[in-house]
Design goal:
single chain, 375 residues, alpha/beta, pyruvate-formate lyase- activating enzyme, nine-stranded mixed sheet, three-stranded antiparallel sheet, 18% strand, globular
């Protein structure tokens, strides 16, 4: 499996706070497609495979590019790669970008999946999170998606919000039934530094409670089981045959090529990433000058990442994969596994080790307890 990830670094919220970003957005938006294709040309040998399973436009608000431009980038990829008609081609989008004109034009592209940043169907929640769209725009874009034949959709929802009752959260989940969505992601609220919400939390104006988030996670699990969603990854839920192929390749440690400012790539041995500044990235591509940073992953790095990612999956990790690591790491793993098993945090079955359903809210912490920490 191979995938290409195109990082489109435009975000409506950034325009609210950063005049520089606002003033250069239009110029950058026009220059970005050519820059992405230039980088593709410079890095055409990064992936060994020439056949793609996924193409993903994400990382900001790719929908600020019109569908015709998105298709021109897809066409540019065809110079180096092939893919079947079944390949997953996804675009991330915000609800307020997805009007009828956009959907009409998107029908003429090869994009066949949308990941929509809804986060909540309640206006009070959206205001708290400083989102640009309204609850009505969220519902409207999903109706338009159905109207124009886009059935492969994913949305994201946030739980653990201040003052979010169990009833409020269940109401959010029931909107999934109303729109017959095949895939969704659900995340506990995280507070970014230097945001309004961060200030409110620090000042005591709002309070976040882990107990409430854990309870919401349990309600989420119960809803998913009742409605036949597979809880296949810690934060991701899918009806049969609707798993996110692109994201699953990350979780399985597959190689991928990332193009654009801040985009990360992985070839199995090292990670590479681009400079984050839009203007500097565009200038570098105009000059044909790749400015990649690199992190070579040691065996310990790969071991710890394997644990963190694999134990987020419902099926857990494959014990056969443990043999990729040296005896010191294998001995460490079994020692820590026995301790976690005694606490009922881990179970073993059919060549796999996994976190049982009642402990999955704490998956990241359980995985980190198995890490090998260098002296």
């Amino acid at each position: 499996m191979a995938g290409v990830y195109l990082h489109i670094p435009f975000c409506h919220q950034a325009c609210v706070y950063c005049d520089f970003h606002f003033s250069t957005l239009e110029r950058d938006r026009k220059a970005m497609p050519a820059a992405l294709l230039k980088e593709l040309d410079l890095r055409s040998d990064y992936l060994n495979q020439r056949k793609l399973d996924t193409i993903y436009f994400g990382g900001g608000t790719p929908s600020v590019l019109n569908p015709k431009t998105l298709q021109s980038i897809i066409d540019g990829l065809k110079k180096y790669y092939t893919w079947d008609t079944s390949a997953e081609i996804t675009i991330e989008a915000n609800p307020d970008d997805l009007d009828e004109e956009f959907f009409k034009a998107l029908k003429d592209t090869e994009v066949n999946r949308l990941s929509i940043g809804i986060q909540s169907f309640k206006d009070e929640d959206l205001k708290l999170m400083n989102r640009a769209h309204s609850a009505e725009e969220s519902r409207a874009c999903l109706k338009l998606a159905a109207k124009y034949g886009f059935s492969n959709l994913s949305i994201d929802l946030i739980y653990g919000l201040p003052n979010q009752s169990d009833t409020d959260w269940l109401q959010q989940l029931h909107f999934l039934k109303d729109f017959n969505l095949g895939h969704f992601s659900a995340y506990a609220l995280t507070v970014e530094e230097k945001t309004v919400l961060d200030h409110w939390v620090r000042s005591g104006k709002v309070k976040l409670e882990e107990e409430a988030s854990a309870r919401h996670f349990q309600l989420l699990q119960e809803f998913a089981a009742k409605e036949a969603y597979e809880h296949y990854e810690l934060s991701n839920f899918a009806k049969p045959k609707h798993r996110a192929v692109h994201n699953h390749s990350y979780w399985e440690g597959k190689s991928y090529l990332g193009l654009g400012p801040s985009a990360h790539s992985y070839n199995g041995e090292a990670r590479h990433w681009n400079i984050s500044n839009n203007t500097l990235y565009l200038k570098a591509m105009e000059a044909g000058d790749l400015q990649l940073e690199q992190e070579d992953l040691s065996m310990v790095d790969r071991y710890n990442e394997w644990l963190m990612v694999s134990l987020r999956l419902e099926e857990g990790l494959k014990l056969a994969d443990l043999e990729r690591f040296d005896k010191k790491l294998q001995d460490h793993f079994w020692k820590e596994f026995q301790r976690q098993e005694s606490l009922a945090n881990l179970k073993q079955n059919s060549g796999r080790i996994y976190i049982p359903a009642d402990k999955r809210f704490y998956s990241d912490g359980i995985a980190s307890d198995l890490f090998f920490i260098k002296d």
